[in-house]
Amino acid sequence: MRASWLHQSVRLLPGRRRPILLTGSTTIWAIKRWSHNYSDTVILPSTEFPDRTASAKVQEQFLSVISDQVYHWQEQNLPEDSLFILHDGPPYANADVHIGHAVNRIIKDMILRYQVMQGRRVSFIPGWDCHGLPIELKVLENLEASKARQLTPVEIRKLARQHAENTITKQMISFREWGTMGEWHNPYKTMNPEYEIRQLEVFRAMVNAGVIYRRFRPVYWSCQSQTALAEAELEYAPEHRSTAVYVKFPLVTTPDELVALVKEQSNVDISDKPVHALIWTTTPWTIPANKVIAVNADMTYQVVSSENHGVLIVAESRAAHVANDLGPLQVLAGSIPGSALTSFVYAHPLHSNPVAQPILVADFVTADAGTGLVHCAPGHGMEDYLLCQKHGIQPYSPVNGLGEYDTAVPAGLEVLIGKSVLKDGQSDVLKLLTEADALAGVNTKFMHKYPYDWRSKKPVIIRTTAQWFADLGSIKDKAVRSLDNVNFLPETGQHRLKSFTKERSEWCISRQRAWGVPIPALYDSRTGDPLLTDASIGHIINEIKEVGIDAWFAEEDDITHWIAPEYREEGKTYVRGKDTMDVWFDSGTSWTLIQEKFAQIREKRSNLVDVYMEGSDQHRGWFQSSLLTYTASHQNGRAPFSTVLTHGFMLDAKGRKMSKSVGNVIAPGAVVWEKFKIDKVMMQPIGVSGLRWWVAQNDYTTDMSVSVESFKRVQDSLGKLRRTFKYIFGNFKPTPYFGYENDVPYRELGPVDQNALYGLYELEKSVKGHYDKFAFNRVVQAVNKNVAELSSSYFQLIKSRLYTDHPASLSRRTALTVLAHVFRLYASVLSPIIPLLTQEAWHHAPGCITGRGGGGQDADLFSPFVAGWYEAPEEWNNEKLRDDFLHLSQIRDAVNDGLEIARKSGHIGTSLDAGVVLVVDPGTDAYELLQSYRSILAEYFVTSEVSIVDRAGSNPAKRRTWSSEPARELIVLESKMTASIVSPFGHKCPRCWHWTAEQEGQICRECAETVKSMHHA
């Protein structure tokens, strides 16, 4: 076997004074000029496979193949009982795509494509979340304010639907440009009539299960959006600044027992002095709605005197803190149990007609903050509401949907009407408290965590309204238990989803908007009582099927057709409800699509869907709403999904989350098609394959950084892969003497070839394991490592065989056999990640490699996806060979060190100008190793010859014209040996450049035989 030669770095050619680099086209030119009569006997590589991707051309040629054709083929040809379902969490149809969309879509596509490679039929129906506030606000913002106010709900819905459709069209174009496959011709949209009907049926099932109820109670309210919000729609600002105040609520009378206690403990008479319960709050705008003061029964309280604020009641454990804010306090009486305070009543300091209000005991009162007495407005706080409900006190909220005080304010506070509770209205409350001598202290910059609307990014308020709720108390334990049999990646996802689900007791599912699916409730026009029965809902659903869902929002004089026949004779008149469902309820019922489409096979599955895959924020969103609606509608104790994967968010090179407001976002289209800038560095476009490779090389389970270095790694990796394919295809160039047809059997391959196949065996097994665990970044790492090993070792070793050995020789055919295996396996392991590149390569690959074309080959193998996963045969798993080559590589490293010294000293130009003498003791394991592989050592070391000399033998330099000193010493298999670089015995062959010719200027014997047979062929 011959060693490689064309790749070698620098040498002088006849007629040239300067060395040239023998690579690429320069190599071919040099060979043709220098080899004279032998040039037509050298088989130089040639292929039309391009060095770079002509992106637009390649996309036009192959994109429909890897998406539409492959998806259709697998639907028609792969077995139904192998079905793998990845259910799409619908992106919101309201904006242009961003790099996060690319990450999400490409990861899903890689999962699907790997399953196809494994012979499984896949189902992926792309979806879009179409209803909701942001879309409605968007279309209204584009109109003049006066015109927007005049729009009817039906007109708003028409504009919103068109906006969503336009956005879906644009997003779909981008998603498809990234080489993703699925049922693009039939996506699901939450605004599709059939989807809305299924959603209403889920709501109906939950009503029948007793899960849905309506209640007048506090909810999170967005003043900007004028709608209720669920907890999942909140985000918390940790440094929100509020106005914190101390407020004095006067007791109606000074209790005799309090007068006596103060007299006893401090000898002070307070019988003629007003006593105030001192509270502290960060929401002074709720003071007008105060109904109760709460205390802790187990805490002790004091009566104190303040020079500026009179006689106050505070908790003993909070007195020192209050004194720091209000000034010195004189203790008049102490050790008063909280339970004793419940016998007192107080008056509201701002009401013109105050009534006696109670002091009640509550567990939520703690000594962590405030005064130990808590102001309660049951219309503006959940704990307040629950406490007051327990005592028959109804909630009261004089605040409208805009967050302004309305006409329900108490008598004497009419000045507040129409003013914002978070702005001028609150300021006026503080003025009124000051005028009433009820304001004891103010801190306008109190910093604390506060809930914000995650869409408007504005602070919310808590406001009591009549809303529809889903009771989660009856289903959340079952939902949490079902997660025990779900696989999560990363594993922390299970804890997050369980924790978020456990924390919720109910889900506010109603919204006060026009663009959504209506809650199908009728209300008694006289009493306001809702009609929500199975019969009524069923009738309304059937009516919607007939007239369309927009008809529910249309203005009608007669709505009799919406009333079920059994309720028309009761003598009642009804009106339709205006509430729509939370968009999380919309998207959370998307599992109904899978349940309906695969009704025949779903009962055979442990879970309805194989994989849910979205961003990590969906533990509070779509994952949870899907789990809850599915659990509420089924009794099988299962979650709707078998595996839940989450990916992180996009960060810039400085670790900042990508955001339009920050200005650090990058559009995927720019990365693919245009030059783009990262940290002031202009980058070249990386194409579709580059974008997908970039996604794959990241550990998506954490936040991902968009940096110059990450994109440079992409360009480097894809460049190496293209050169690998180009090298393989070029060596299958047909010759007049031989056309490659069949693989050489493994047993007939040489050790160098078998060792290369062992590397492929390891690659295939490791990559399959990584794919099974959705670890695409580890797939990339494994492929990059193997590409580097092949390029630096095996591809270099076989060049001489490929270029100069006889075309029909076993040595050349064994090399081509390995190259064929390399391509087939690479096409297999790379196709899930970069299908556009592998499809392009498949197109350029000779049919004898892929199995396409005539001659008994399969013309239907139009894509590597049709060929399927290329499993490395077990016979390639030759561990002894692996161990032997580990030791041989140790020797080769020492040889390479010696060759470098010889090159620097001027003895050689390339490694073929040298011979190697290995000195080792006979009978040792190292000696036996060298003898076993003696015939391939010159090829393996890329030298013209190798001599093995026992330590007692002659001088290695004897009869040599030169010898590079010193010899390299090393220990192999616990045996000492040396490696010397010496001049070869023979002369340089002008055809193959090995120093094996018998005379100067003549070709070597092997080349002579090859040339002779080629000329006589």
Give a quick rundown of the structure.
Strands 14-12-13-10-9-18 form a six-stranded mixed sheet, with helices on both faces. It has a five-stranded parallel sheet with strand order 4-3-27-28-20, sandwiched between helices. It has a four-stranded antiparallel sheet with strand order 8-7-19-21.
Which terms summarize this structure?
disordered N terminus; alpha/beta; 32 helices; 5-stranded parallel beta sheet; hypothetical protein PF0899 fold; Rossmann fold; 1017 residues; elongated; 38% helix; 6-stranded mixed beta sheet; Isoleucyl-tRNA Synthetase, domain 2
- In CATH, the architecture of the domain at 241-452 is Alpha-Beta Complex
Largest sheet at a glance? Answer: 6 strands, mixed
User: Can you tell me the CATH class of the domain at 241-452?
Assistant: Alpha Beta
Supply the CATH superfamily name of the domain at 241-452: Valyl/Leucyl/Isoleucyl-tRNA synthetase, editing domain
Strand content: 15-25%
| Poorly predicted tracts of residues | 1-35
Q: What characteristic shape results from the CA principal axes?
A: elongated
For the termini, the CA-CA separation is 22 Å
- CATH fold description of the domain at 241-452: Isoleucyl-tRNA Synthetase, domain 2
Q: Give the structural class.
A: alpha/beta
